[in-house]
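Bumping my old thread because nobody answered last time. Still need a sequence for this structure:
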C-alpha cells in the first residue's frame, strides 16, 4: 500500500508546523500540500487528489464548512478531517452535512489526530472521544429511552456500519450479504427511525454510543 497523502489547511502557520511534526512521525504519511485559506485548500485538492484533507473551520476567503462542501463536490473520494477548537454540537452537524468524515478537537492529544487519519483512510468516520462523550451525555438526559428496540439485529448491525462510514458494498462483503440485501436493511432501519440523511444516521449513532469505540 502506498503512502497516505495528506493536505493540511489551516491559516495559522504554527499549527500547520505542529501538525507536520505529528504526522511526520508516521512512516506511511506524506504531506502533499499546505493551504492557508479555504480557497487554496479547494484548489490544492482539485490538483493533487489527497487521501485526507485536514481542515480548520475558521479560515479566510472560504471557511472550513464552505471548503469542505466544495472539495466533496469536486473530489468525492477525499476524506475531510475537521480540526477545530469548537466542541459545539451545531458545528459538528453542519460539517457532517457538508461531507466531513472526521471531527477532532485541536486540544486533543497528538495520537488522536493520527488515529483519526487512519480511521478515515480505512473508510470509517471518526469523532473525537471528547465530543462523543459530551453529546451522548447531554442527549441521554433528554432521551432516556432507546428506539433501537424497533430494529431487527441485522438492521442494527447494518445501520452501525453505515454510521461508521462503510459503503453498501463494504458492508455486504463484511457481512456476507448481497448489496441489495444491505440496501433493504438500511432502508428499513432509516425509515423506522426517521433518519433521512447520513448526518442523521451519524447523530443517532452518537446518541446510542455506537461511535465511542470505533
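Sorry it took so long. Here it is:
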Amino acid at each position: 500500500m502506498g503512502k497516505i497523502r495528506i493536505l493540511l489547511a489551516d491559516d495559522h502557520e504554527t499549527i500547520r508546523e505542529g501538525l507536520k511534526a505529528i504526522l511526520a512521525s508516521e512512516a506511511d504519511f506524506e504531506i502533499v500540500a499546505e493551504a492557508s485559506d479555504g480557497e487554496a485548500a479547494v484548489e490544492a485538492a482539485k490538483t493533487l487528489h489527497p487521501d485526507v484533507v485536514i481542515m480548520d473551520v475558521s479560515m479566510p476567503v472560504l471557511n472550513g464548512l464552505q471548503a469542505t462542501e466544495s472539495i466533496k463536490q469536486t473530489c468525492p473520494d477525499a476524506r475531510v478531517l475537521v480540526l477545530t477548537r469548537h466542541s459545539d454540537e451545531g458545528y459538528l452537524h453542519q460539517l457532517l452535512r457538508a461531507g466531513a468524515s472526521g471531527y477532532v478537537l485541536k486540544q486533543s492529544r497528538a495520537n488522536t489526530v493520527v488515529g483519526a487519519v487512519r480511521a478515515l483512510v480505512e473508510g470509517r468516520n471518526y469523532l473525537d472521544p471528547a465530543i462523543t462523550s459530551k453529546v451522548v451525555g447531554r442527549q441521554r438526559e433528554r432521551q432516556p429511552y432507546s428506539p433501537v428496540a424497533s430494529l431487527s439485529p441485522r438492521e442494527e448491525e447494518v445501520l452501525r456500519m453505515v454510521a461508521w462510514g462503510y459503503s453498501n458494498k463494504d458492508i455486504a462483503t463484511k457481512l456476507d450479504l448481497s448489496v441489495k440485501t444491505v440496501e433493504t436493511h438500511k432502508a428499513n432501519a432509516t425509515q423506522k427511525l426517521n433518519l433521512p440523511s447520513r448526518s442523521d444516521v451519524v447523530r443517532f449513532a452518537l446518541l446510542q454510543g455506537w461511535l465511542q469505540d470505533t
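The chain has two domains: 4-137, 145-208. Let me know if any region looks off to you.
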